[in-house]
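ok, trying the design again with the full structure, not the truncated one.
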């Protein structure tokens, strides 16, 4: 069972800590536990409850009404809410609860409903990206276990791979060849897999090398394949100095290709001379670039 501070609960639920304290005092909505050193904390049950409360509160229920509900009544109210009218925050909260409970059926239900409503691409950007930001908060506080993170990551990975496989090849007169890889030691591939989907959906050719590719191996593959673009994401495998060195090498190895990189914010005068380095800080930036490529051939 995880322990959460009131700030953790605020970030995960979207309800301000000040408001939570008022609800505790006035309506006895939560009863925080205390450590041996008298520090307040909340557990998984508290998180589930406040996420459910937040869902009803955003649907227009008064907090005085919600506070009167028993556990079963609260769950029934949530169950009876139409998932067709969920806002994005509610969808994200439901995914968080699915992860805490490690309930793959609930996760699939809410994710699939969002995909039906908004399409796969917008669901990833508008729902899954903010959801993984919340997971990042849980990681920082030590509130989730590695098994929970792997559980969710693998479900999402399967979804993205399925979406890639289901993409219908289409003729694109402006189609380019993109070579995708993660640097050596980098294992977080969900973002790069989504880039694969975006590229394939728009009719571009994609060669996906995947996780932890040594730079020398990439150089050999690039010399053989001669792609138009090299695409990578850097999360945790390199510190700031190593990142600069890595990108400078990458630029020198592929002077005729544009290199698209993301995963961190890097502002270094050293990289200004490398004009083939293009920072794409998120999927929307990649979509803008692909629109630009297509527009040049219309």
């Amino acid at each position: 069972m995880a322990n959460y501070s009131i700030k953790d609960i605020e970030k995960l639920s979207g309800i301000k800590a000040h408001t939570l304290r008022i609800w505790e005092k006035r309506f006895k909505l939560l009863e925080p536990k205390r450590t041996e050193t008298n520090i307040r904390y909340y557990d998984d049950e508290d998180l589930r409850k406040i996420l459910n409360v937040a869902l009803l509160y955003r649907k227009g229920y008064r907090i005085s009404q919600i506070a009167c509900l028993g556990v079963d009544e609260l769950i029934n109210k949530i169950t009876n809410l139409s998932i067709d009218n969920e806002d994005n925050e509610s969808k994200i909260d439901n995914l968080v609860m699915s992860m805490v409970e490690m309930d793959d059926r609930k996760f699939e239900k809410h994710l699939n409903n969002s995909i039906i409503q908004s399409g796969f691409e917008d669901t990833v950007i508008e729902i899954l990206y903010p959801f993984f930001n919340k997971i990042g908060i849980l990681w920082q506080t030590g509130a989730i276990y590695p098994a929970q993170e792997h559980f969710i990551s693998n479900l999402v990975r399967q979804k993205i791979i399925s979406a890639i496989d289901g993409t219908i090849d289409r003729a694109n007169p402006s189609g380019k060849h993109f070579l995708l890889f993660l640097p050596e030691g980098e294992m977080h591939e969900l973002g790069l897999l989504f880039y694969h989907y975006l590229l394939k959906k728009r009719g571009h050719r994609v060669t996906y090398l995947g996780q932890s590719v040594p730079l020398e191996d990439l150089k050999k593959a690039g010399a053989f394949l001669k792609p138009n673009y090299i695409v990578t994401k850097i999360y945790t495998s390199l510190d700031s100095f190593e990142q600069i060195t890595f990108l400078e090498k990458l630029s020198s190895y592929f002077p005729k290709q544009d290199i698209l990189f993301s995963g961190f914010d890097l502002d270094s005068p050293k990289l200004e001379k490398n004009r083939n380095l293009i920072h794409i800080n998120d999927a929307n930036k990649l979509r803008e670039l692909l629109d630009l490529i297509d527009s040049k051939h219309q």
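Keeping the full-length input from now on. The beta strands are 33-34, 40-41, 177-183, 205-213, 229-233, 258-262, 277-279.
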